[in-house]
Amino acid sequence: MIRIKARAPTRQGYVRRSDRRPLRRALALALPTGWGALAIGYKLTCPTAQQDGLGARIATSAVFFAVGTGLVVHVRRTLLRELRQARRVAGAAQSVLLRPPPPRVDGLSVAAAQLSADRGAAMGGDLYEAVATEHGVRVVMGDVRGHGLSAIGTVAAVLGSFREAVHDEPALDQVLRRLDRALARHLRERARSEHPSSGLEPDPPVAEEFVTVLLLEISHDGEIHALNCGHPWPYLLSGVRVEPLVRADPLPPLGPFPLPSDLPALPCGRLLPGGTLVLFTDGAEDARDARGRFFSLPTVLAEAAGGHSVTPQTILRKVFTALLRHTNGTPADDVALLVLRNDRHPRPWTAGADANGQATAFRGGAGGPAGLLRGS
If 0-12 CB within 10 Å is exposed, 13-18 middle and 19+ buried, where does residue 93 land? Predict the structure, then answer.
C-alpha cells in the first residue's frame, strides 16, 4: 500500500505553524535586546555618560530607568499573554471534561456549576454529570481528594467511566463497580509514573488518593435509588421544606477499600413533580467565614426555595452568592452544586374496572399504570 501524505498548498508569504515558533521567539527577544543595546550604546558612546557632573548622572539614570521600565513592561505583557493562553486552554479542557449538563434531561430541569478554590485553575477536583438512559436518569456527583490541576486526571478517569457505564450496565451497583475499576487502573498508572526511578515527586501520594461518589437513578415515575461512597447526601426541597434525601450511613470512599460483594441500591422514595434535589460537595457545608462559622446550606436553600419563579438556575445563583459572601470571596475548597427539578407532568387518574368488575383507578399514559386503587 502506498500512502500519500497530504501537504498544504505552499504560497509565497505562507508560513507553516511549525515555522512560526522560532519567529515568535525572535520577536519576543527583539525588544529586550534592543533596550539592552540602547543602554550599552549610550554608556559607551555618549559623551554625557562619560562625565561625572550632576546633570550627566541624572541623564544616565533617566536612560537606565527608561530601559528598566521598558523591560518590566515587556515581561509583564509576555506573562499576561501566556496566562490568557493558559486560561483558554483550561477553559477548553473544562468544556470537554466537565461539560455543563443540558437544561432538561428526560423531563428534569438541570443546572450545575463548579467553583474552584485555586484562582489559577478553571476547574478543580469535583465532578458531576446527569445522563438520560433507558434505565432512567442517572446522576453522579463526586469529589476527588485535593483540588486544582492535580485532581484533573482522576476526574477524567471517573467521569469517562461513568459516561460509558450508565448506558451499558442495567444495575446501578455495576455502574459503581465500573467506576471503582477505572479509578484503580488510573491509580496504578499514576503509581508507575510517580515511581522514584522516574524522578517525579508524587503529588499527592497515590496511596492516599480517594474519591467520594454519589450515584442516583431516577426512574420515569420518579422513584429514586442511590449508592453512596463517602459523599454527603443531597437535600430534597419540597416548597420551603429542606431535608436530607436519606439519613443512612454511606459506604467508604472509592480507592482505599474494596467494594462489598453485596451492593444493593438504596431506595430513597420518589421525586414528585415540582420537587427539587440539590447535590453538592462537602466544600459547600465546610466553608467558613472569618470567625470560623460554617456555611448553613439548608438555610440558604430554604430562602432560595421561598422566592418567586424558583428555577435550578436561581437556586445555584443564590447559593453561590451567599457562599462567596460568607467566605469573603475565598473558599478554602472546591465547591460543586447540581440541582434537579422534576418538571414532568403528573399523569391523571383514570377510572376503570378489573376482571371481577371491581372499580379501579390508575394513572394513564404511555408508561403504563403508576399506581392502583381498588374500590371496597
Answer: middle
DSSP per-residue letters across 188-207: HHHHHHTSGGGTPPPSS-GG
340 near 316, Cβ under 8 Å? no
Residue 319 CA to residue 295 CA, distance in Å, equals: 10
Cα distance between residue 99 and residue 91, in whole Å? 10
Whether the Cβ atoms of residue 158 and residue 127 lie closer than 8 Å to each other: yes
313, three cell numbers: 438556575
* Residue boundaries of the structural domains of the chain: 23-84, 97-342, 347-376
Rounded distance, CA 254 to CA 51, Å? Answer: 75
- Could you identify the residue written with the cell 460509558? 164
User: From CA 307, how far away is CA 348, in angstroms rounded?
Assistant: 28
Does the predicted TM-score (pTM) go above 0.85? no
Average pLDDT, the chain: 78
Q: What is the rounded distance in angstroms from the CA atom of residue 293 to the CA atom of residue 287?
A: 8
Lowest mean pLDDT among 5-9, 103-107, 284-288, 342-346: 5-9
Indicate the DSSP class of residue 259.
Answer: P
Task: Name the residue with cell 381498588.
Answer: 374
Look at residues 251, 272, 258, 246 and name the one whose alpha carbon lies nearest to residue 341. Answer: 272
Q: Which of 9-13, 107-111, 114-118 has the weakest average pLDDT? A: 9-13
At the topology level, CATH places domain 97-342 in Phosphatase 2c; domain 1 (3.60.40)
CA distance 183 to 203: 17
| Triad 78, 81, 85: Cα angle to 5° | 140
Residue 329, SS3? coil
Say which range, 139-143, 167-171, 342-346, has the weakest mean pLDDT: 342-346
The pLDDT of residue 362 is: 40
